[in-house]
Each structure stands twice: as C-alpha cells, then as structure tokens.
C-alpha cells in the first residue's frame, strides 16, 4: 500500500529515477598493455634461447645442387611417384664425392675473406642457367692475349701469370722497341699514361693519338682490360700493369677490389697480387695505383717487390709517395726500377701542362733521363701529343719507360 500511495502522490510526468550499474574491469588499460608486452618479450626470449639455429639469423644464400645421375635413372628414383607428384625427402643426403660428374657439370667457386684470408670452396652442380652463368663469370680466368709467349706464363688459381723461362724475362721480351744506342748518347724522356682499361673511349684515345714510344699503364679493372691492352700492344705501345695499393686515407679513398693492404698478411697480399697479375698479359712490369701508405711500409712492400723480381718484371714507382721504399727494395732484389719525376697534369689546364712538360725537358738535360706521368684526360693527350712532335728538334729523345729505366740503372 505504501508503494502504491507513493506512486499516486508523485507528480504527473515524473518517473522515479533508477540507478544504472557500471561494468568495471579488475585492471586498467595500461595494466593490460603491460601484460601483453611482457608476454611478447617472454615469447621472443624463449625462441632465442631454445631455438637451435646455428646461423643465429645470419643472412644465407641457398644454392640448388642436383645430381647429374638423376637424369639417367628411372622417374621413381628421382623423387617422383607413380602419380607424377614430386615426393620430397628432407632426410635424404646427396653423396657428391662418390658420384662422378662429367666435365662441365659442376663449378667450384672459391670465396676469400679479404680481412682474414680464410678460403671456402663451394662446389656448384648443374643448377639453373642463371646460377651456372654467375659461377662461370666469377671463376672463369681471363683469356690469354694474342702475341704472348706461352713459355712466359704460369697457371695460377686465378689464371695465367708471368714467369721467367730460362734467360727470357717478361721485362725484356715485352719492352717496346727503341734505339738504345742513340738513347745512351742523348737526353731521354719517358711518359707513362695511367688509369687505362676503365673507360674504353679514353683508353682508345691514348692508344691511337699518342706516339708508340709513350708507355701505357692499365688498371686490372674494367669489363675487358685485356682486349684494350692487346690493342695497345698492336699499336706498338709498351704496357705496364697498375697494382692497387693502400693510400693513407683508406677506406675513404678506396683504389678498388683486391687492394693490397698493410693490415693483411704477406700471404693474403700475395694472393691478391696473383689476382691482379692474371687480369691480362704482355706487360713488362708493374706500378703502384695510388698506394702512398703501402709503398712506404717496408714489411708490406718487400714481399711484393721480391715476387715481381722473381717473375722477371720491372717496377715503376709513380713518385706520388715521398716516403716510398720501392727504390731500396728493388735494388736489393736486383730488378729494373724507375721513378716518376713530374706529374704532368697535376693541374689539368693547357698552360700548366705545357709548363710541366718544359720542366720535364730540363730534368732530362740535367740528369740524362726523366720520366713524366699523366692521366688520359683529353687535354693531357692533346698537349702531350703536340709536345712530342717537336721534341727531337730540341735534342731530346722520347723513349719507352723500359729504356729510361735501363739507362738510369746503367748510369
């Protein structure tokens, strides 16, 4: 009755307010986020601890290796069932040692760690065409150039490299022709154009526009430096091979792949030297490509000089490092040696190049022989070409580098 009376006494149009219950969770949103993050970290830590992955997540390359015998066996033996579906057997092992492989069915790629010198031989079977072409490009040695004496070549793991054969040495055999009797009686000048082999246009300009007595130095890089070096020899130019060596600001200033480094052991640098020597043939000697630090470091430089001397090569120091020990090392190895006197295009303008060439003439008159170095810049080639045309009229003989080296040694 009381409740009914209250309802009757309540003003019309007004209902009795009712309390709404709010659903409350026993934890806050931040607590929920913290719990989820903790579970994620716990799962990740458990995976890292208990997952047995010997590579530890390192990047890896998968190479397909197929057994050539599989093509001669029945379909069932190659992993196909009677229904034509491929049956995968992950536990089966491919015995490559016991299965003889015909020539051309496998390639061996040797990977060398440049910092440790560690070598890893990887045998690649008859994979798909892309894999085979990549392996062939990485391991195929450069072809032997035309006009090369096979007796002066020795096979290395990278290709053919120079060697002495009896009384024959590459320095003498591949030296350009010169009137050495005349050179002994008058001042001589030699010019070395470096940095060739990378950039066919500038290399061909140097080959065709400069007189044969100008010596050309090739880097081991480029798509086919051997073909360009072969063209240079066909034009009667004498060639030298530039060996990339460590400069003081390495690695900010990096000469290129397989650079000889003072931080490597003698064996590691020797392995890199063989790679460079195999890029082409027909050179009379080697010269430094950059390398101000390396050529001034006796423990690193001495083994390279001894090896070059043993193989019948000469050594040319381009003169860029005032602390170079190459002269003393070459003298102790009794090998032909030369050093650059003037960088002709240090300032690559016609006026400065002409001024450097005049200094070269003066040095030749004073000492009997002088060597200038230059790059294959168009302005350098043009000014040197014009200068050589009247050099004989001024009583100076233009000779190949080897002739200047021999004259300096004899004097």
TrEMBL record:
Q: Which UniProt keywords apply?
A: Membrane, Transmembrane, Transmembrane helix
- Keyword Membrane recorded: yes
**Membrane spanning residue stretches:** 25-50
**InterPro entries, alphabetized:** Divergent_DAC, Glyco_hydro/deAcase_b/a-brl
Is this entry keyworded Membrane?
yes
Q: Which residue stretches does the UniProt record annotate as biased composition, category Basic and acidic residues?
A: 82-100
User: May I ask which residue range the UniProt record assigns to the signal sequence?
Assistant: none
The ranges of region (Disordered) come to 67-113
GO annotation, biological process? carbohydrate metabolic process
PANTHER family tied to this protein: DIVERGENT POLYSACCHARIDE DEACETYLASE SUPERFAMILY (PTHR30105:SF2), UNCHARACTERIZED YIBQ-RELATED (PTHR30105)
What is the protein name stated in its UniProt record? Polysaccharide deacetylase
Origin organism is: Bradyrhizobium nitroreducens
């Amino acid at each position: 009755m009381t409740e009914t009376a209250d309802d009757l006494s309540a003003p019309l149009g007004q209902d009795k307010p009712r309390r709404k219950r709010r659903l409350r969770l026993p934890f806050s949103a931040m607590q929920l986020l913290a719990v989820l993050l903790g579970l994620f970290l716990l799962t990740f830590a458990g995976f890292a601890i208990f997952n047995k992955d010997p590579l530890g997540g390192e990047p890896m390359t998968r190479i397909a290796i197929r057994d050539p015998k599989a093509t001669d066996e029945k379909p069932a033996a190659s992993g196909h069932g009677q229904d034509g579906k491929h049956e995968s057997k992950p536990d089966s092992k491919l015995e490559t040692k016991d299965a003889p492989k015909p020539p051309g069915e496998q390639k061996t790629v040797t990977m060398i760690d440049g910092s440790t010198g560690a070598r890893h031989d990887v045998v690649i079977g008859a994979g798909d065409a892309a894999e085979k072409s990549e392996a062939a490009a990485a391991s195929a040695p450069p072809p032997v150039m035309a006009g090369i004496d096979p007796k002066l070549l020795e096979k290395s793991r990278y290709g053919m490299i120079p060697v002495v054969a009896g009384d024959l040495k590459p320095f003498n055999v591949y030296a350009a022709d010169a009137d050495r009797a005349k050179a002994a009686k008058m001042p001589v000048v030699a010019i070395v154009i470096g940095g060739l082999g990378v950039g066919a246009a500038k290399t061909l300009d140097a080959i065709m526009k400069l007189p044969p007595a100008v010596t050309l130095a090739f880097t081991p890089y480029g798509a086919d430096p051997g073909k360009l070096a072969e063209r240079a020899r066909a034009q009667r130019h004498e060639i030298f091979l530039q060996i990339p060596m460590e400069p003081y600001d390495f690695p900010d200033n990096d000469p290129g792949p397989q650079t000889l480094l003072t931080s490597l052991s003698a064996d590691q640098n020797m392995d890199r030297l063989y790679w460079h020597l195999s890029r082409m043939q027909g050179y009379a000697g080697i010269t430094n490509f950059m390398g101000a630090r390396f050529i001034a470091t006796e423990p690193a430089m001495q083994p390279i000089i001894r090896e070059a001397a043993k193989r019948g090569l000469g050594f040319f120091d381009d003169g860029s490092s005032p602390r170079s020990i190459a002269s003393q090392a070459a003298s102790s190895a009794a090998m032909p040696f030369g050093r650059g006197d003037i960088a002709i295009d240090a300032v690559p303008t016609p006026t400065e190049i002409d001024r450097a060439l005049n200094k070269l003439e003066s040095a030749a008159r004073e000492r009997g022989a002088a060597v200038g170095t230059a790059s294959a810049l168009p302005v350098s080639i043009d000014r040197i070409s014009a200068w050589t045309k009247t050099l004989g009229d001024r009583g100076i003989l233009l000779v190949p580098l080897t002739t200047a080296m021999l004259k300096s040694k004899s004097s």
